[in-house]
Specification:
By secondary structure, the protein is an alpha+beta fold. The protein is built from 28 helices and 38 strands. Helix 4 crosses helix 7, helix 11 packs across helix 12 and helix 19 packs across helix 22.
Length: 856
């Protein structure tokens, strides 16, 4: 007994010796097991001898003997053993996952696993167990895991077809079964030690929620088994005594699959797994078992972190089917951590009862309505749900940090500690069994009905290809989302082709073979508004993405379109006209109004961030530019004539005074408004009489008569020709205002910038500063627009009114900018058409007013 006490008290002396002779590294002895034929007798007992002399480890010693490991435990080397005494084994036989009631019922494989899972192939004190080398440096007091001595060869098992997951990748083995390992990487031990727990901010209450046991003081645990005696020094390593037998743990995926309370969640997870032949493992196994002639497979999950991104047949797996990480990877390593030891993963796995309740009520009901049962939920949708519940970092997912959990798209996860029914610490992370489901924003946002519907695959493809998911999933705003269903996704008049001699209408359709959108091109007659013969099919992804992006921008309204107004601006600065409400709602874009078309609602979905309206045709935005409308409307002719007389600049250094331009960076359907800049505007067009009166009064000079600007000679008295041109340009631009304002049933009053800059410092009605844009005050009762300009003495003076008697108001225009000139494209078969793109656009509403607007 005295000798035993001396040995325990001398452990630190011996540790120093190990350090000096190189048996232990700076942090721990991490050399492979070393054996010598002769050893210094004064070192005392080996691990085996210590356990034998103690007299309380008979079961553990029997395991060592039965697996043929006695010599290893007797000789010098470098081992760490987490042993359990006989009392612990008696409790183990009273209840364990294997159903083993006495020692004799343990198989050799089980004995191997029990021993090797409780051993580490290097010598560690509890203090040094918390340290590790990673990323080229020593990381002190941060380690959570360490690889055990288990050999993957000990885990090879045969699984019958009935034991295999459902899915096409497992079906080839449905009849024959296969030899399978759940993962071919080392099985780590998870150790909860005082320093790492404190550094990670894991409280005792967190620890109890995670492990189910209480922790006091500086208690150390291997998984949930308390270390009741630590740092027993032997000549070939250390022994740490555990309160309970260390039952081998499995990885998170395996636990979820084997847990009878998480079968639904597991069935979803298993869809993203497949068997892959492990030839190196097979060869090694054959060396030990010469009669083995089969192939061993490993179970892999689809992920770019520790998993596979190719199917077993080597075809590439679409990233929409990737999990955040491989949940079956025993040696999982967080990509942002310094090594395996520093962190692990976490999964929030709802129980079956929770999954069923979610599916039959609340936001999950839309899933049930669409698919009927969990088995019918498509893989891409199941993947979204799984990703929301999988965490790449355990340390960032401990209960104390639940309040700030966010998913990979930075959306909050509304979880609380009361949601956790129990937890399981696996070799690669923690599984929290939850009483809540945390659906992704895709399910509850305005995107959800599009995602779930088989009738909206065209728009869904456009959403995914243009990365619109995050926008539609934003829960901080409210939207109205109009979605043409596939059945009606036709007769979209292509804006680029509208600038060609040969016009075209497109029908978008989903190609199930290529899982992509195609478009059939049809002839279109703008005069009769009829669609003719089909000409070709476009499969160019860039063309289709571009057109669908433009459609998406014109089908989303920020806000509620049933608020009582008649006009609403879309995300892309187009305006739509709304009439009616609910399922009787009708919509018209500028192009629809031009053509007398009406878009009808077929279904409405009330979502967390707004409403999704399924509609019976795409909303057509305006196809006429400001130039086209003014040039084609006789009532606008006098103002239009003033706008089109500006000559091009004589040199590249001269300012461009033209209102309408084309070429260079202004390729549109016809002419573009030069100073428009991807925004929405209002254009006030004085009546022909008002323009002529202003000319008669000498307020402005025309181009050719009474007297005209073109007749001004530089020697004439009065303003020079250039000054007259500048003055006319400034006068015209004062009729162009930022922000599209409609007569639409709602009253408002505001000051709005025009396109004319103030050049002097004289005080005006609205106190506009020099070098700022002049403003105009607009007031509406809901059925009119009344304007007051800077030149007036007070805001009660009416400078002009929008005329509503002739119908020349609320006219929508759109100035497109394309990547090339459609006027140069001969026909729709040309690759120039296929390569065309809508680069940007500006929109405007045009009103006729009864007087000219003056700023000076």
């Amino acid at each position: 007994m005295k000798q035993r006490i001396w040995k325990r008290n001398s452990r630190y002396v011996i540790t120093a010796f190990f350090f000096l002779v190189g048996m232990l590294a700076m942090v721990s002895c991490e050399d492979d097991s070393l054996y010598t034929e002769k050893e210094p007798e004064w070192l005392g007992e080996s691990i085996y001898d210590y356990l034998a002399e103690d007299g309380n480890f008979n079961y553990y010693l029997r395991i060592i003997d039965d697996v043929g490991y006695a010599e290893v435990m007797k000789r010098t080397g470098s081992k760490t053993v987490f042993a359990a005494n006989d009392e612990a084994f008696e409790r183990f036989f009273q209840g364990n996952p294997w159903g083993v009631a006495r020692y004799e019922e343990l198989s050799l494989a089980q004995k191997n696993i029990l021993l090797n899972f409780s051993s580490i192939d290097n010598a560690y004190l509890i203090e040094t167990l918390a340290n590790f080398y990673g990323s080229g440096q020593l990381n002190r007091g941060t380690a959570l895991r360490r690889a055990s001595s288990i050999s993957v060869l000990d885990t090879v098992g045969f699984e019958s077809g009935a034991q295999l997951p459902d899915g096409p990748h497992w079906d080839p083995f449905r009849q024959s079964g296969l030899y399978l390992v759940k993962d071919d990487s080392p099985w780590p031990l998870v150790h909860f030690l005082d320093r790492p727990l404190r550094r990670a901010g894991i409280s005792d209450s967190d620890f109890e929620l995670i492990t189910g046991v209480q922790r006091n003081g500086d208690d150390a645990f291997i998984f949930d088994s308390r270390i009741i005696e630590r740092d027993i020094t032997c000549k070939n390593g250390y022994i740490h005594i555990l309160e309970e037998v260390l039952v081998p743990r499995v990885n998170m995926a395996q636990h979820i699959a084997e847990n009878e309370r998480t079968t639904i969640f597991s069935s979803l997870l298993e869809r993203f797994s497949a068997p892959y032949p492990a030839m190196d493992l097979t060869d090694n196994y054959r060396q030990i078992n010469p009669g083995f002639n089969d192939t061993i497979y490993t179970k892999e999950y689809f992920s770019n972190i520790g998993g596979r991104i190719q199917y077993p047949d080597l075809t590439v797996i679409s990233d929409q089917y990737w999990l955040p990480f491989n949940p079956g990877w025993n040696s999982y390593q967080n990509p942002t951590s310094a090594g395996l030891q520093a962190d692990m993963g976490a999964i929030f796995a709802p129980t079956d009862e929770t999954m069923e309740f979610y599916f039959n009520s609340g936001s999950g009901a839309i899933l049930k309505d669409r698919y009927g049962n969990w088995e019918n939920v498509p893989d891409d949708i199941a993947a979204l749900l799984l990703r929301r519940h999988m965490r790449t970092s355990f340390l960032e997912s401990v209960p104390a940090r639940f309040h700030r959990l966010r998913d990979a798209e930075n959306s909050p996860i509304p979880i609380s500690t009361s949601d956790i029914e129990s937890a399981y610490v696996g070799v690669n992370g923690v599984v929290y069994h939850t009483s809540n489901v945390y659906p992704p924003d895709d399910f509850i946002s305005i995107y959800g009905p599009v995602l779930f519907s088989e009738d909206t695959r065209v728009f869904n493809w456009g959403i995914r290809r243009n990365d619109f998911r995050l926008y539609l999933n934003s829960l901080v705003s409210r939207y109205s989302f109009f979605v043409p269903t596939d059945e009606f996704f036709e007769n979209y008049i292509d804006p680029y082709a509208f600038g060609m001699d040969q016009k075209a209408a497109l029908k978008f359709w989903y190609n199930t073979e290529t899982e992509a959108v195609n478009a059939t091109v049809y002839e279109y007659d703008p005069f009769t508004q009829t669609v003719g013969d089909s000409l070709r099919v476009i499969t160019s992804a860039s063309f289709l993405e571009n057109r669908l992006l433009d459609l998406l921008d014109s089908h989303i309204v920020i806000g509620d379109v049933e608020s009582g107004a008649r006009y609403y601006r879309t995300k892309g600065n187009n305006t739509i006209r709304i009439q009616g409400a609910g399922e009787n709602l009708t919509i018209q874009g500028g192009g629809d109004i031009e053509n007398g078309a009406i878009v009808n609602v077929t279904e409405i979905y009330n979502q967390e961030n707004g409403r999704t309206y399924f509609i019976d045709k795409p909303i057509q935005t305006p196809l006429r530019s400001v130039y086209a409308i003014l040039s084609e409307t006789p009532e606008f002719s006098e103002f239009f004539n003033l706008m089109t007389g500006f000559p091009p600049p004589a040199t590249s250094q001269d300012p461009d005074r033209r209102i309408f331009v084309t070429g260079n960076n202004f390729f549109g359907i016809d002419f573009s408004t030069r100073f428009f800049n991807t925004f929405h505007y209002t254009v006030y067009v004085p009546t022909n009489d008002a323009v002529n009166d202003a000319i008669e009064q000498g307020l402005i000079s025309p181009w050719v008569s009474r007297p005209g600007i073109q007749g001004i000679e530089d020697m004439d008295e009065g303003p020079s020709r250039q000054e007259a041109i500048d003055q006319l340009e400034r006068f015209i631009r004062y009729h162009f205002q930022d922000n599209s304002l409609f007569i639409g049933g709602q009253a408002f009053t505001g000051l709005f910038q025009t396109s004319t800059i103030k050049l002097d410092d004289e005080e005006t009605l609205f106190r506009t500063y020099q070098d700022k844009y002049y403003r105009v005050r607009v007031q509406s009762s809901g059925e009119d627009l009344v304007l007051t300009t800077e030149i007036e003495e007070n805001i009660d003076v009416v400078s002009a009114r929008v005329r509503t008697d002739g119908g020349f108001y609320n006219i929508m225009a759109r100035d497109y900018i394309f990547n090339s000139n459609p006027g140069n494209v001969v026909n729709l078969e040309s690759t120039l058409f296929t390569n065309s793109a809508i680069t940007t656009s500006s929109t405007a509403v045009i009103h006729q007013i009864d007087n000219v607007l003056r700023f000076e």
